[in-house]
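User: Working on a comparison across species. This one is Serine aminopeptidase S33 domain-containing protein from Letharia lupina. Can you predict its structure so I can line it up against the others?
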Amino acid sequence: MLTPKTRRHTLPDGHKLYTKTWIPTTTPHALLLFVHGFSDHINSYYTLFPTLACRGIQSHAFDQRGWGRSVQTPSQRGLTGPTATVLNDISSIIDSLLATAASMSVPVFLMGHSMGGAEVLQWAARGPSDMRSQIRGYVAESPYLTLHTSAQPRRMIAIAGRLAAKVLPKRQMVQKLQPRWLCRDPAVCKKWEDDELCHDTGTLEGLAGMMDRGAELNCDRIVVEDEKSFWIGHGSGDRVTSFESSKQWFGRLKAKDKEFKEYPGWFHKLHAEPGEDKITFANDVAGWILARANIQRTQALSEPQSKL
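Assistant: Here's the predicted structure for Serine aminopeptidase S33 domain-containing protein from Letharia lupina:
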């Protein structure tokens, strides 16, 4: 039986992040670092990490600065800092894991969901070169390149928000998501809505940075390395982030080893979709990672016998 390990990771500025690790019961074949999305935290990803661990992928995740159990007081909600801080936090976690991966002789992968998906792709382009050279591949689930057309703010509102962020960067603002569009499972939507850690609160600086990170990728102002491997998964029924933007960005991606997986009709949280769908998604991710971790094909394609 898997027993996750929790701890606190201390950042260079002294801020402490809540982290959790799912360790396989057998020798790991790969190590994965996961970056969560907006108004989310790592304990709301259901069977994703246990399923990956059952496939031999040691999974590490952390509540980002301003989110989940990394928040100590209400004034810290959404206080992510600018993009440089967001990417530096990811680098700090990666740096702490590289020695572990080296000691196990396993490759390292980086995965993110929604806001975290865009952050992972940004890090793939802008992270420290010595660290990027040690990452085998990148996985983005429903990445936030642009919002779905029905969720996009008016242009003038977006411009005003960016200007206000320069004057009052730490000003908190609630950016309410529509629970019903997160997942096709009503119970998951209800649980998210009732979760106090999913507080929908950003800062003007953080919200502007989130929009800008996606825009930079979507407009190709930030270009990722083409020698790395990339997997993008997106549901065509997603009404939070844009499926079309992900597909178009993938089409422009020059990487030789890349895969785009469409989930017809699925919503935003692929990892929480109803019934066996969430297991299917987790196994798709696991299969892609294991195939690039030089595991025999029979192992890479095997399914866990027990449903978590």
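For your comparison, note: The beta strands are 5-10, 16-22, 30-35, 57-62, 108-113, 135-141, 172-174, 201-203, 229-235, 257-263.

User: Helpful, thanks.
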